[in-house]
Amino acid sequence: MKQIRHFVNANDSVKSLLVTFPVLLYTLFMQIRKTTAADIPAVMAIYAAAQDFMKTHGNPTQWGTFYPEQSMIENDIHEGISYVCTENGKLAATFAFKVGQDATYAQIYDGAWLNEKTYGVVHRIASARLVKGSARFCLAWAFSQCGNIRIDTHRDNLPMQHLLAEEGYTQCGIIHTYDGTERLAFQKSE
């Protein structure tokens, strides 16, 4: 056992693999697909659970009890940017993803984006909290689509900030959403 510990301490790539391996096992059967109209009730239930989670974890105002509205999800589906993560046929998470400029990211304050290359945007990511690693899997999938992702979150959303840091995202500054509220802006690039 001493030899294994010594080897792992001496070899960061193996150590990283040992930390990552359980997450890989959890995500072995997950898939990402476009959201359909039939998914809307389950997607809205995921968002309701996420709103409750935020409230009980010090972030009661980011989504409150009304965001996102069903009409927004229906519009995302119509635009082809709404996705669900499934595991064994059950919805594990949901999010919006698109490649291209996002108006809320046009101006950044108290910092700068890592680059101005074409980027993907992840919005409204929420997990059903039934499958460990589902939000992480969604972020990894989005990154695999274009290798340059921008995302934002509320200052009080510490669980999301922690996840983004673990996934290698850099906090770049502050942006303002369409309604003028402040968000912390993050980016990850190849």
How is this fold's topology laid out?
Elements: H1 2-10, H2 12-26, E1 30-34, H3 40-56, H4 70-79, E2 82-87, E3 90-99, E4 120-127, H5 134-146, E5 148-153, H6 158-166, E6 170-176, E7 182-189
Parallel strand pairs: 4-5
Antiparallel strand pairs: 1-2, 2-3, 3-4, 5-7, 6-7
Question: How would you portray this structure in words?
Answer:
- The chain contains six helices and seven strands.
- A seven-stranded mixed sheet has the order 1-2-3-4-5-7-6.
- The protein has about 190 residues and is of the alpha+beta class.
- The model is unreliable at about 1-20 (pLDDT under 50).
- The longest helix has 17 residues, at about 40-55.
- The protein has a single domain (about 1-190), classed as Aminopeptidase (3-Layer(aba) Sandwich), CATH 3.40.630.30.
Q: What integer is the average pLDDT?
A: 86
Overall, the morphology is globular
Content of β-strand: 25-35%
Major sheet description? 7 strands, mixed
Structural class given helices, strands, pairing? alpha+beta
- Amino- and carboxy-terminal Cα gap: 37 Å
What is the percent of helical residues? 25-40%
- Oligomeric category: single chain
Strand count: 7
Q: CATH superfamily name?
A: Gcn5-related N-acetyltransferase (GNAT)
CATH class: Alpha Beta
The unreliable regions are 1-20
Specify Rg, calculated over alpha carbons. 17 Å
Number of helices: 6
| CATH fold-level label | Aminopeptidase
How many structural domains can be distinguished in the coordinates? 1
